Amino acid sequence: MAILAMGMEIEAHEFDSVASKLGWEQILKNFFGLTTDQAVVEEEEIKLGKMLDNYEARLGDS
Asked: For this chain's UniProt record, which GO biological process terms are given (predicted)?
C-alpha cells in the first residue's frame, strides 16, 4: 500500500509537470499558431521515459 501511495504522490508532482510541458509544446502551441520547440519536446520525452522506467521497476517489485 505504501508503494502505491508513493507512486501516486510522485505522479502528482513529477509526471504531471512533464506531461503538461509536452502537451503545451505538441498540442496547444499548434492550436495557438505557435512553433513547437523540438528541443524542449526531446528533453521532456527523455524525462518521461526515465520516469516511466522507474514506475515500472517499482511497481514490478510489488
From this structure: glutathione metabolic process
